[in-house]
Amino acid sequence: MNSRSLIRIIIYLIVFVLIIAGINAAAIYSKAYSPNIHTPEQKPVYIFIPTGSEYEDVLQIIYQQNLIENKKSFEWAADKKKYASHIHPGRYRIRENMSNNELINILRSGLQEPVNVTINNARTLEDLAQKISGQIETSPDELLQLLTDSGYIQEYGFDKLTVLGMFLPNTYEFWWNTSADGFFKRMNKEYNRFWNQERKGRAREINLTGNQVITLASIVVNETNKEDEYRRIAGVYINRLNQGIRLQADPTVKYALEDYERRRVLRKDTYSDSPYNTYLHYGLPPGPISLPTIKVIDAVLNYEKHRYVFFCAKDDFSGYHNFARTLEQHNKNARLYQKALNRRNILR
Asked: In what helix (H) or strand (E) does residue 202 lie, and over which residues does it extend?
């Protein structure tokens, strides 16, 4: 074999090796970077990886939603990027036509997306725990255990009767895998941010603590759904507190009876033996009877100054109230409303 033939053979070998290498490179590139994720209707979907999940758990979560076209290539890419050693819990957004490399990079880096946690009306700690646990990973039992831990909540200035008022109704961004402790601390931070110097000053001016303001606001919001009456009704209760008159607030009786939907409070109901019954006890109840909105809290802090000490629902069922300065006028208003209830056969 002459040198020219040898060179030709070497060139052929090199070309062959390059072709094989190119084929392998293309295969590797395809496995890693070609679109391999397909979502229903080509719309983004979310997967939730619980705390403590292992590699096989993640595969099951992804495969259950039929997101991966070629499972072998996905697992090959996951193995090459050592994903099994970098699993992070959370909520992850999966897009149409993602590659294995894109998806694994998101998962192994913990690049999750936050969830919007909405806190709205809740009457009890159990109710709050159930509503929150439906929005983040933490279970209702974990939340409730923390919310009723006297030693824990005392460090933040609350007890079991007042801690409900720390959770101001609003929508907040959280990581889905936030723990019960993390959730509590974040909400305490929001509470302290809300109680700025201006609001603290207003509370001092009306001789109430922040917890007491929220408790009064929780009564006001259960008296009316008319925002333009918040400040006036708050003013009635402030007048009664200042004059040493029992609040005699029907919503506190309903709370004591745990009968929140009743439309009529009877005289016998006002004898309910409960610290929340403001027909029996002077002053505010020991804690909020629900979560008041920020608007109601600010309405209490900026209550309308007037001389009314009574109010009663109007007999036209408009949702508005008649206000009175004297018991005589209040009794007239009350009789009109009671007759209207009777006409509609509303007995409870």
From this structure: helix 197-205
